[in-house]
Amino acid sequence: MLHTLVRRTGKGRLLHVLPLGLFVILATAVPARAEEPSSSASAEFDAQGHATIVVPFLRKHCLRCHGPEDHQADLRVDEHLPPDFLDLTIKGRWGEVVNVLNSHEMPPEDEPQPTADEVTAVVDWITEQMVRAELQRRDSAIVLRRLNRQEYRNTIRDLLGVDFDVSGFPQDPSAGGFDNNGLALSVSPLLLELYVDAARKILDLAIVEGDQPPTLRWRFEPETGDGDSNRVNYDGQRAIVHGGQNRVEGGFKVMHHDSWDRHLNARDFAVPHAGEYIIRIRAGGKVPGRDEVVAGARKIHQFRFEERMKEKPDGERYYREEMERALEHFATDRIYDYGPPRLKLIQNLGGQPRVIAEFDVPAPHNDPAIYEVRTRFSTEKAGLTIEYGYDIPRKLENFWMQGNDAFARPELWVDWFEMEGPIYDGWPPASHNRLLGETRPGRSEERTAAREVLGRFMPRAFRRPVSEAEIDAKLALFDAVRPSPRRTSTRSRRP
């Protein structure tokens, strides 16, 4: 844990300090739980009804078998049924009373039986008090509040300037149609572990050390090869550049439809420095008109017609009628009033694919544009994949021909794609300065710097002024884990 809080250079010189208290604030991401209301305090109840309806009933029909002299089933109505409906155990006993009265199990058949009106009055009184207590518990119950995933992401971005990927958190449950209902946002041990892990990652993203990493710029030319054997050297790394089974025209890879063997990708590489990278794609599109759609469909159907005639010539009339009906569909259906082609960009990082962008490409193929997407890379094995993303509704007339290159549909023309980074707006980045400020304390000034960091951060995190005592409480965590210079000098060095 401490390695994300106190950073050192290779020579052991303290570079900057981040107090443990700040880590705790990020790791918990929820306010402290308030004390539960005491269940020993009785809810407001109908005392008059208890005295005039319930007590006489219990004395007359229950006390002989469930009283001081004989307490069958270990129940004494004079001791075990106080009017405290906030106590769940006592409330459960009152519920059993209602059950046995409604089912006529009590009083026993050999005992004097109450009238229906007497039973109804007791059951109604108990039920009313149980409902009243439940409403009071709901109003006063304190749950462990937390942020939902999007609120957590927004909070981290506002506090630190880091756009953290929250997809690793469990999906937030919905209550009443909303996913930010505090009563439904429970906290589990697993979720707390995820918060702690997220805090480490967030601080690693926010805080930097050393000089700004050098910027790389790798351009991938997908027309250079159509197989995994096509490897291209980028700063000593031999990345696979795969153009898929797409035709090449004018130096562009032309993507006609989506298929597993039509994707463009560059993979099996790892960037030397983690950070944010810009992905650029030079691409354009070619959108066929309605005449081209009909002509393409006619060509496919004509070939199909001729093949069927070879197999069964006597079906000519049926084949022609079927073809004409299909061509009428292509001539009139609005789904063939095409828009620009669509591109889907997928990042693979550490073996995990993730769609990072999907967008239309309105630029024409003879005047392509450069489209940019920003994403974060770690130093794990990585890859980028471009897929064709324009979807045409599957109809009876077209589903079997959509993968045919003669079928006219929007084409995506890709010249190249590249990545550049890591990109920073400045050095150190804004997130670093927002946390640590401009000072770089020496070892003797660490505690003072820690207090300054907490003094800046805590009011923003809590969204209110904080007292010196609150800062001291977090600073005590720093004191507990940060060894003194003398203890460091005598301690054996650990890897």
Explain what this protein looks like in three dimensions:
The protein is of the alpha+beta class and 495 residues long. It contains twelve helices and 14 strands. Strands 3, 6, 7, 9, 12 and 14 form a six-stranded antiparallel beta sheet that branches. Strands 4-5-8-13-10-11 form a six-stranded antiparallel beta sheet, with no helix packed on it. β1 and β2 (14-17) form a beta hairpin. α2 packs across α4. The two termini are 14 Å apart. The model is unreliable at 1-17, 30-42 and 486-495 (pLDDT under 50).
| Average of pLDDT | 85
Counting copies of identical and different chains, the oligomeric state is single chain
Low-confidence region ranges: 1-17, 30-42, 486-495
Order of helix and strand elements from N to C terminus: EEHHHHHHEEEEEEEHHEEEEEHHHH
Largest sheet: 6 strands, antiparallel
Envelope shape: flat
Strand content: 15-25%
How many strand units? 14
Given the helix and strand composition, which structural class is it? Answer: alpha+beta
Number of helices: 12
